[in-house]
Records
---
Amino acid sequence: MAEELLSGRNDRSTFPPLIADLERDAEQARIKLNKGEIQSLEQLVSALEKLLAVKDFNVLPPVFAQLPESARNQPPIISAFLRFLFLSGDRQRARNLASKIKQDDPEIVPAELELLIERLSKPSPPLKSLEPPLLKDYAFDLHDSHYSMKMLLHCPACGLSYIETTGWGIMILRATYCSHCLEPRLIHPDFLGDVLRHYHDSDGREGFRKVDEELFKLVTTWHLQGDYPSEGRLGELNLADPLMLPILRMLIRGMYLERYVKEEEPVC
């Protein structure tokens, strides 16, 4: 799926910085909220949607806490708050609140909010039953021998886009949820691998050279760490020999696949 969407994107400089666009809009919304420049319900809803789209969960709690009661009871604000709870990991609270809203006011819930409440009332589907996300843009970072990726994903269910970021656990099967309709998609190592391959083709394979450099640093300093022999050998193998790198790559890949490719623990 990543290959399909990124085909032909060998020169990323010809495409608009889509992630940067969303992040700029979210930053402007944050500034307006902090300065008290939001004057209407429509502006407030728009600002919340922009912050949800980049999943800025640090800014949103004080915003919701400071809302007047009249605003909190508005369906678009209720919807934004339910999605904030769910996306930030407080899923059981989101489900409990959604259930309470449905029981207290079953006849006044607008259709869009009702669909959201209905989705929250159902258990999350098994991860392996999900389709991969649709990718529109990505940013890449290599730090301390780990990949970190920020991706702009397109939701085919509602047509909107949102940002998702992989943490240190790049080899974990995890669900990503649309910030607007909570449509789930599966992020998995092969999907991320496709994205990385396209990235490294477009950057002149510089990223792969960085991986080699990090591996080489790791290999050549093993003899200085822990219980490794001071001469840098493990049995008959010289771990500092550059010819060992291809073998070490296979060993590291096997270790990751065996030990770290697992399903993310469900958050209740």
---
Amino acid sequence: MVNGFSLDPDRIYTPREVAQLYTAHVRHVSYPTVLEWIQVWYNSNGREGMEAKRTPRGRYLITAEEVERILLQAGAKKMEK
């Protein structure tokens, strides 16, 4: 496990990158699982899951703020400055 995570606040992440970050800082999670979290968000009207914006080509993009929320909610530690 890595000590803590640090995200660039202006960066946009793909579901695959989120899966890699989550695996590195919390526990193993697969790319299809992250896609399921996104679907849960839409199906629950934003009460559960993970928010992602969809591009015109159908790809999902996740803000650094949302990635941080998911990691902290799961128990990951943010790197101290």
